[in-house]
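REVIEWER CHECKLIST
Item 1: Sequence provided? yes
Item 2: Single chain? yes
Item 3: Sequence as submitted:
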Amino acid sequence: MRFRTRWGVVLGLAGFGLFAAGCGAQTTYTPPTFPPGNAVAGEQLYTTTCAACHGPTAEGTSSVAPPLWQQGGVSSPNYSSMTTLTAFIYQNMPKSAPGSLSKQQAADVATFVWGLDGKLGSSTASQMLGMLTKTSAPPPATPTTTVTSSKFLSVNTSAKTATLSLIAGYNTSNDGGFNFDGGYDGNMTVTIPVGYNVTVNFKNSAQIPHSAAVIGPTGNNATGPIISGATTPNPVLGTAPGGTATFSFTPTKAGSYRIACLFPGHLVLGMYINLKVVSSGTPSMS
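Item 4: Structure as written out by the authors:
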């Protein structure tokens, strides 16, 4: 959770408000409303969702994410209120799948972090930090229908939905970046049961155009999706560097597929991961 970035947005909004006021208009940023948060639930969610970047005891990770508690009496995160912190988490976190948390989950994490940083007093900060460093087994988590299968895939088994964060050029694997979430040549598999609605949030983090489309298991000449709607716009032309796109599809037939880049020449280079549609079960990514 990178909290300093939010201030650039807020200050930008504030500056726009002042500009509008000078023109006779008034602009006020109003964060969304959230339910009351639960610090215990927030700690559990922090451990499974946030600790990978911010560290197991919220100590931060060099060049990746800041610490989330006071060190040497200095507050590391930069946020002004519980509401703005919750809104930032809800809209931007986790980094691997921004916007995937529910309002309740965002409120729970914010309540935990707010206390962790001493905003509710030093005794509360010690209590929150103690929750992260405890040696006893944590209490059983409250049953939920939301499952995080991997840092790229979020699943709601009750609603039968799955959200896939698909990042083209995620790292330099495969000739400098011809990959999705680091996977290529079918070395990564997304498994989806028949009837699940899948939303793919695509982002091109590479320096050249890329696309994503669901195609058949073989061949290198596809120019469009094999499942209706399962593609980014104009998959042969691709999405420009830094661009994003979202598409959804619901598989109705079990079988083997691929999620591939259809920009000319990229599929031949192995820019695809496997998509396995099964008759039943829970979505997963491996």
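Item 5: Key structural point noted by reviewer: The radius of gyration is 21 Å.
Item 6: Recommendation: ____
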